[in-house]
Amino acid sequence: MSESPRYQCFEVDVTDRIAHVRLCRPDALNSMTREFWLELPQCMQDIEANTDARVIVISSTGKHFSAGMDLGVFTDPKAVPMTGDPGRMAENLRRVVLQLQDTVTSLEKVRLPVLAALQGGCIGGALDMVCAADSRYCTRDAWFTIKETELGMTADVGTLQRLPKLMPEGVVRELAYTGRRFGADEAHRLGFVNAVYDSHEAMLEGVMEIARTIAANSPLAVTGCKEMLNFSRDHSVEDSLKYMANWQSGMFRPNDMMKTFQAQGQKQVPEYDDLFPVKGLFDS
């Protein structure tokens, strides 16, 4: 990333068309502060607009992936007023929750596949976040919890909406009602994580190898896969098939297929053009 933006909560490195985003506050258990919620969608936008990345890997530092929401977010009177007219307080809180939800949804909205590499605890708001990733991988010591229930509130940033699409609903209901932890083996058995690794180093090596495979494919084909899978998750099969036909009639061109066949015939690795960067209409 040229002129890489400086973040308080993340370190970003782009190498070989893989953007590696690391949570970088291990002394604070990578808790999700106000800055975290502001920076995450900006980070996704910066990667799309200013790098040649074709896949994003999100990992963390320290013993735990993330302790989840920093309670200071909800105790900041500037963000969440605790006095005044109840109706106005409620309207303000609704907008705060919607903004938090939009932050997590940025992982779905970014065109690039997002792979989450998790170690230790993935708690509360952190679980909300990784539910929005395309795929999840973890170390054997990883564990997950819908912590909000134990704190006396209902999880409100995406876990209850996304996790039932990733795991059996009856299990999700149990986890939500009880707030109990579930570990790496259970997460793997239920399909929440793709693979479990014995160490953090082995996990990153494995996830980066998957990322390299993705980055070697046609970025137009990959982003089309993400668009279709996200749409199909939320719509009927009939509607999804129609959307697929519309996408294909507009986006499909034989250029990348021809490059694939030519490279195979020459026993070479195909080289595909990058997607155009995502920028605002008047961005330089």
From TrEMBL:
Gene3D superfamilies: 2-enoyl-CoA Hydratase, Chain A, domain 1, Lyase 2-enoyl-coa Hydratase, Chain A, domain 2. NCBIfam families: PRK06142.1 (NF004794). PANTHER family: ENOYL-COA HYDRATASE. It comes from Marinobacter oulmenensis. CDD domains: crotonase-like. This is Enoyl-CoA hydratase. Coiled coil: none annotated. Keywords: Acetylation, Fatty acid metabolism, Isomerase, Lipid metabolism, Lyase, Peroxisome. The keyword Signal does not apply. GO terms for biological process: fatty acid beta-oxidation. It is an enzyme of class 4 (lyase).
